[in-house]
Amino acid sequence: MENLKSLKENVAIFLPENGLEEKLKLAKKENRPLRIKLGFDPTAPDLHLGHAVVLKKLKEFQDLGHQIVILVGSFTAQIGDPTGKNKSRQPLNADQVQKNAETYINQLSKIIDVEKAEIVFNSDWLDKLPFSEVIQLLSKVTVAQLMHRNDFNKRFTENTPIAMHELVYPILQAYDSVKINADIEMGGTDQLFNCTMGRQLQETNGETAQIVLCMPLLRGTDGKEKMSKSLNNIIGLTDEPNEMFGKTMSIPDDLLEEYIALATDFSIEEKSSLNDRLKMDNPMLIKKLVAKNIITQYHSEIEAEYAEEFFNNQFQKRNDENRVFETVKIDSLNFENDKITLLDICHQLKKDISKTAVRRLIESGAVQINGEKNIDPLSDFILDSGIKVKIGKRDFFELN
User: Fold this and answer.
1) What is the pLDDT of residue 25?
2) Which of 141, 176, 256, 359 has the highest CB neighbour number within 10 Å of its CB?
3) What pLDDT was estimated at residue 211?
4) Exposed/middle/buried for 91, CB within 10 Å: 0-12, 13-18, 19+?
5) How far is 201 from 94, CA to CA, in rounded Å?
6) Which has the closest alpha carbon to 151: 191, 195, 186, 188?
7) Does the bond joining 283 to the residue before it have cis omega, within 30 degrees of 0?
8) What is the distance between the alpha carbons of residues 297 and 239, in angstroms, rounded to a whole number?
9) DSSP-based three-state secondary structure for 188
10) Side by side, which strands form the sheet with 388-391?
């Protein structure tokens, strides 16, 4: 059967277990491509390597001629998806949804052929759904079924509030599968409940149920939690090559097998060889190969080579003269108050992360001023030309 081994590689969950084989047989029998759904609520506009795990599997199906359907939750994002944590997610307004969706779709083109993908917005049908039909839709799902979702169950047990709109959300997402006639729905393992709800609604509507393919969740650079912008542990698809290389080199060694499997596009044989080398080679050597492979995927091979050279010059040569410091003009900095703290200057230099994240970096000892560690975020900072500021493992600045 068509590249079945490759299609099944790295998939964490098949529901049902032999569902993919059956769907491929059905597509061949009916002489049509499968319709493969990936839904997203554009709650944040930035894609990272965690998203790419699912997207690269979609690309495999697309390359085999199947129809990818990218479903933008333009309606559901304005409701607020349950986060999987002990609180609900804040809903977005229509302008935020539109802006994030445009950015997201543009980034999808780094992996899939957006021109060949079908892109739909669930507000096209959910905005028009009469309330009487909403009630009929809700009647097809029991509260007991919804409480099988882990985060709902946990919050209920802990007497943490669960808003009614959160219970409705997975039902609306499932209804999307009915509207687009999905054969397969893909997502991360954290989306298993919502995807299986789609199967149920399709069956109650007399349709053939979609199968569910869930990909593993890639852990972030902290080596603990799944990759998430809110945790500041991501490697973004739009990160510059040098930043992408540095972030990859910062991952814990025990994550290398996971990154080889999920983040690279090495062949199955090459991945096996790298895993064997991990048992005897210095992990840094393997990590560099992984970093270069990732950069080649999202930038180019030549930029991967330059990024490695930059890294070697900046981080593996110990003397400051061998490090590349980014020059920052003092008059380009803007501060709210006359009194400037270490937290203020570091946040000005690293505007891409929150002040809270900067504070954590300082308090953890990850900030140095002229080579001296300072762990007091509120300590006074005197602006002066020639001061060198190191933030974290990868960012070096010199004031001028």
Assistant:
1) 92
2) 176
3) 96
4) middle
5) 27
6) 191
7) no
8) 12
9) strand
10) 326-328, 395-399, 388-391, 367-369, 372-373
* Tokens 């006359």 -> residue: 338
Nearest to 208 by CA among 54, 56, 369, 29: 29
Distance between CA atoms of 214 and 38, rounded to whole angstroms? 11
* CA-based nearest residue to 38, from 25, 56, 24: 56
Residue of 16, 10, 109 lying closest to 62 (CA atoms): 109
- C-alpha dist (Å) from residue 113 to 37, 107, 187, 214: 15, 11, 18, 21
Looking at the DSSP bridge assignments, the partners of residue 38 are 70
Residue 175 to residue 181: CA distance in whole angstroms: 10
Structure tokens at 323: 């490090």
d(CA 221, CA 231): 10
Pairing type for strands 388-391 and 395-399 reads antiparallel
Token reading at 148: 């099988």
Q: Tell which residue, 377, 376, 372, 375, has the closest CA to residue 387.
A: 372
pLDDT of residue 313: 79
CA dist., res. 400 & res. 388, Å (int): 10
Contact 175, 126 (CB under 8 A): yes
Query: How many CA atoms, within 13 angstroms, populate the side-chain half-sphere of residue 41?
Result: 21
CA-to-CA distance for 182 and 30, rounded, in angstroms?
15
* pLDDT < 50 regions, the chain: 84, 86, 319-320
The C-alpha angle 181, 182, 184, rounded to 5 degrees, equals 160
Phi/psi zone of residue 203: left (φ > 0), alpha (ψ -120 to 50 degrees), beta? alpha
Coil, strand or helix: which one is 400?
Answer: coil
The 10s digit of each residue's pLDDT in 77-99 is 877 655 545 455 566 777 888 88
Do 180 and 69 meet the contact criterion of CB atoms below 8 Å apart?
yes
Query: Structure tokens of 250?
Result: 């910062």
CA distance 62 to 296: 21
Q: What residue spans of the chain are helical by DSSP H?
A: 4-8, 19-30, 49-63, 94-108, 123-126, 131-138, 143-146, 150-157, 164-180, 192-204, 241-249, 256-262, 268-277, 283-298, 301-315, 342-349, 355-363
